[in-house]
Amino acid sequence: MKSLTPFIVIAISVGMYFVYISPGFVEINTQRNKITEYINVLEKSKELKNKRDSVLTAYNNISEEDITRLNKIIPETFDAVLFANDINNLASRHNVTVKDIKINAPDSESRVIPAESTDKLYKTTAVTLTLSGEYQQFIKFMADIETSLRLMDISSLTVKSGGKSGSNLLDYSLEIYTYSLK
């Protein structure tokens, strides 16, 4: 029996390993994996917090002049009177007369919108201008519209003679799309 005792103790030890210790190791490894995942999530959240803080700092460092310029590109709301005044000032600088301004918001089907921008973050307003002036002055007026801060798309241009045979004046009809956030 003395010779069987070590074998019995070894068999009991092996059995205890598989019954108690091995499942404990599996549980320990599972918990280690969870801890590793939590540490990774905490590191990512710290990176995101640092990124958020840097973006917030950069946003707060934008000067008032730049914010004003950005608001001119795409204003919060479309102000028809301000828009008409800006167009009239541009036209008067180049001796072009504004005869008529018609402002209306187009239907969503009338303006082709790319498939990627189906969620409306902005409002499109159609403006029809009727102008009169000499061709060279009109070209300078168009150059000013092109370089202005306000975001505008010219969708159509119609040119007609001014009516008087000896006159250099032409009548122009422009359809412009301008944008605002609301």
Describe this structure in words.
- By secondary structure, this protein is α+β, with helices and mostly antiparallel strands.
- It has two domains: 1-61; 74-180, Ribosomal protein S6/Translation elongation factor EF1B (Alpha-Beta Plaits), CATH 3.30.70.
- Helices cover 51% and strands 22% of the residues.
- It has four helices and four strands.
- A four-stranded antiparallel β-sheet has the order 1-2-4-3.
- Helix 3 crosses helix 4 (135-147).
- Residues 107-111 have low confidence and may be disordered.
Contiguous low-pLDDT stretches (5 residues minimum) are 107-111
The CATH architecture term of the largest domain is 2-Layer Sandwich
Summarize the amount of helix as a percent range: 40-55%
| Main sheet properties | 4 strands, antiparallel
> What amount of the residues lies in strands?
15-25%
- Class from helix and strand fractions: alpha+beta
SSE layout and pairing:
Blueprint: H1 5-60, H2 64-73, H3 80-93, E1 97-104, E2 123-133, H4 135-147, E3 152-161, E4 170-180
Antiparallel strand pairs: 1-2, 2-4, 3-4
Which key phrases capture this entry?
4 helices; four-stranded antiparallel β-sheet; 4 strands; alpha+beta; rod-shaped; Alpha-Beta Plaits; 182 residues
Short recap of the structure:
Helices cover 51% and strands 22% of the residues. The protein is an alpha+beta fold and 182 residues long.
